[in-house]
Amino acid sequence: MIPPNSSLVRYDNPVLVSRNNDKKSPKSTQLKTTPQIPTNGGPVPSTGSGLKGQVPDSKQQQTEEILNTILPPKEWTENNQLWIQQVSSTPATRLDVVNLQEQLDTKLQQRQARETGICPVRRELYSQCFDELIRQVTINCSERGLLLLRVRDEINMTIKAYQTLYESSVAFGMRKALMAEQGKSDMEKRIEELEQEKRDLERQVNELKAKCEAIEKREAERRQVEEKKHSEEIQFLKRTNQQLKQQLEGIISPKK
User: Cα separation of 235 and 219, whole Å?
Assistant: First the structure.
């Protein structure tokens, strides 16, 4: 079954291309095609064999070539048969523009596109709508269509540049987050080591304080003992001095 046309861009009915081993130019491929019989009974685009001598003018042919350059034909294979579907060269009316707007709104609702923020679905549908507008303008004025093509390519290039910048920013942010996470784990490990070192130092300080208190206590006791001993020696020397003084006075006094 031929895949349905779900794009907002208007295409002609698909045609069957005869399969040959040699590659053909787009013109020769277009001449050797068999149009698909539409199921809805609509008109079938005429092929090269059904032109009946009517050759399109150069302007029409140039417009079709420009359209095929701007919007390349769709190609797919089914049952070993190559199908091709070219963009339509039928001029658009005001009603077509109104229908395009309604189709855009309908598809936005059906595919649940977000109204704000980044939304690939909304971006795809608006790109298709812009391509359809370029197709309609190109049919009436090819120069204006080519200028719109430049605008479209510039917009796409800008969006890709922003997308690349966004992806690089996300990658940079992820790297920084991983580095920060790794740095956080290293810092937590360092903090734990410092806390352990702090506890060891506090234990050493407590031990040294205990040693200092013990030394001060011993020195105080020794100083008390020394002071007591010194005091006793002084008292002993005083008594001895007093006795010697009395003896000396006893020896000296009888001579008087």
Answer: 24
Sign of the Cα torsion 159, 162, 168, 173 reads: negative
- Is 96 within 8 Å of 136 (Cβ atoms)? yes
> Taking every pair of C-alpha atoms in the chain, what is the biggest distance, in angstroms?
183
Mean pLDDT by 10 residues, the chain (256 residues): 64 74 44 40 40 56 82 83 84 88 90 86 90 89 88 92 92 89 86 94 94 93 91 91 86 69
In total, the chain counts a number of residues equal to: 256
What string of H, E and C letters represents the secondary structure of 163-194? Answer: HHHHHHHHHHHHHHHHHHHHHHHHHHHHHHHH
163: exposed, middle or buried (C-beta count within 10 Å: 0-12, 13-18, 19+)?
exposed
